[in-house]
From TrEMBL:
Example of a GO MF term: symporter activity
Transmembrane segments: 24-41, 47-66, 87-108, 114-136, 157-178, 184-204, 235-256, 268-287, 299-318, 324-348, 377-398, 410-432
Gene3D superfamilies: MFS general substrate transporter like domains
Listed InterPro entries: MFS_2, MFS_trans_sf, Na/Gal_symport, Na/Gal_symport_CS
PROSITE patterns the record matches: NA_GALACTOSIDE_SYMP (PS00872)
Membrane topology: Multi-pass membrane protein
Keyword Transmembrane helix among UniProt keywords: yes
GO CC aspect terms: plasma membrane
Name recorded for this polypeptide: MFS transporter
Superkingdom per UniProt: Bacteria
Matches recorded under Pfam families: MFS_2
Subcellular location: Cell membrane
């Protein structure tokens, strides 16, 4: 059983790497949904781009509600394994099965096909919620130490980047090697699904929850009360907006990559090269980001990173048909997203601590759901915009050539809109000031816990001002 002295214990490398494996598993699915699912539905199955966009948006909006509910369930869970770990285990098999079903579309008429796509895509998002919300909450349950949590987050983001790299770089070559038909897609995602399930089991097996709960699960507030407390947390709301904007941008340029490669660079297979150039800098950069955060904090590197991403987009815009410019721009985009991707999830535990300091209640599951909910909402809006704009521009995935209007839409969705959204991110990062007061938050929370002993926390005078 954990004690309060354990709450600030150092997390071992084995445990840290096992924790990072969970996000490797998660991003096998995220990478597939973000980069290839629209291309698969339109160019392999033959579904209309506008219909795909609508399906994705509806599924993601519904799943945003599921995220909040899942967060409340985690907050009320109490087992010998803890609050979060058991859900990581229980979600592993459904997660793998749902991923396989997304890419297993039986030959049917258009309407039944769209119904099947809607159901399986929604199931995949529900499975993501069941795995991601508890997994994310696990970070806040493993340690209270600010530096240790930051190290866990960097390890997690390394795993996430590796997962995205694996699925985006290997999918099309595997599909091609296995016959370049739907059967090949099914086999490919059977392999990815099995890998994800194994990684989730390793995360469950080798991690430990150390945080001592100050109240029994039945004393946790309900969903409505939790949301009321959440909206009083200004930095949680701001971070929620950051997640949405960042995810819309990521959804657009990753979702448009295969289309951009096919129609501007002449071969859809070049999407793997561009993804490689995007994720390799991020993978290597994650090894050094903790030192950067220790010296400069999180916000300043994130602002610089967003500016570098904008510069990379401008390079691609010079001549979208030039492979050298596309690769160079992709590398800069990859470098630019390193400090953002490496810090954004680690900022959520900070907002949980701030909420506890401000309101006297620690809502790990519900507040952490902001990340997943914002990410899914952002990806849903981005994917919907991708489908709607391309559909309105006259895109048809079964045609070998596309009208100029469709090509202009692809270029805008891949280059210009993400660039504008990263400019907006710079503004949002500048407005995020929690980093400046966090030492005070951490100090006062520690004093309260020491004073309270085994009792409940009480609000101080500074919180009521």
């Amino acid at each position: 059983m954990s004690t309060r002295s354990d709450e600030f214990a150092t997390v071992t490398w084995k445990e840290r790497l096992s924790f990072g494996g969970g996000d490797l598993a998660t991003n096998i699915a995220w990478g597939a949904l973000a980069t290839y699912v629209a291309f698969f539905y339109t160019n392999v199955i033959g579904a209309a781009a506008s219909a795909v966009g609508t399906i994705v948006l509806i599924a993601r909006l519904f799943d945003g509600v599921v995220d909040v509910g899942m967060g409340a369930i985690v907050d009320r869970t109490s087992t010998r394994w803890g609050k979060a770990r058991p859900w990581v285990l229980w979600a592993a098999a459904p997660f793998a099965i749902a991923l396989i079903l997304v890419f297993t579309v039986p030959g049917m008429e258009p309407t039944p096909t769209l119904v099947y796509i809607t159901i399986t895509y929604a199931l995949m998002n529900i499975a993501l919620s069941a795995a991601v919300i508890p997994y994310g909450t696990l970070n806040t349950r493993m340690t209270r130490d600010f530096t240790e949590r930051s190290r866990l987050n960097v390890t997690r983001m390394f795993g996430a980047t590796l997962g995205s790299l694996v699925v985006t770089v290997l999918t099309l070559p595997l599909v091609s090697a296995l016959g370049d038909d739907q059967r090949a897609w099914i086999i490919t995602f059977c392999l990815f699904g099995a890998l994800a399930a194994v990684l989730f089991f390793i995360t469950f097996r080798n991690t430990r929850e150390r945080i001592v709960d100050t109240a029994p699960p039945q004393d946790q507030p309900g969903i409505v009360e939790s949301l009321k407390l959440a909206v009083r947390n200004r930095y949680w709301l701001l971070l929620f907006a950051i997640f949405i904007v960042f995810s819309v941008a990521e959804s657009l340029y990753t979702g448009a990559t295969a289309y951009f490669a096919q129609y501007f660079l002449g071969n859809a297979g070049f999407a793997a090269l561009m993804s490689f150039m995007l994720y390799i800098p991020a993978l290597l950069g994650m090894l050094f980001m903790q030192s950067v955060y220790n010296r400069f904090g999180k916000i300043a590197p994130m602002i610089v990173g967003a500016a570098v991403f904008v510069a990379g987009s401008l390079i691609i815009a010079i001549d979208p048909t030039d492979m050298a410019l596309a690769v160079t721009g992709s590398i800069l985009r990859g470098i630019g997203r390193i400090p953002i991707f490496g810090a954004i999830w680690g900022m959520l535990p900070d907002t949980i601590e701030y909420g506890e300091w401000k309101n006297g209640r620690r809502l790990e599951g519900v507040l952490y759901s902001a990340g997943s909910m914002g990410q899914k909402l952002g990806y849903g809006l981005g994917a919907a915009a991708l489908g709607w704009v391309m559909g309105a521009a006259g895109y048809n995935g079964l045609n070998h050539t596309q009208p100029d209007s469709a090509l202009s839409a692809i270029n805008a969705l891949f280059v210009y809109v993400p660039m504008a959204l990263f400019v907006l991110l710079i503004v949002l990062f500048w407005a995020y000031r929690l980093e400046r007061i966090y030492p005070k938050v951490e100090k006062e929370l520690a004093e309260r816990r020491t004073a309270a002993g085994e009792g409940s926390l009480s609000l101080g005078e500074s919180d009521r001002k």
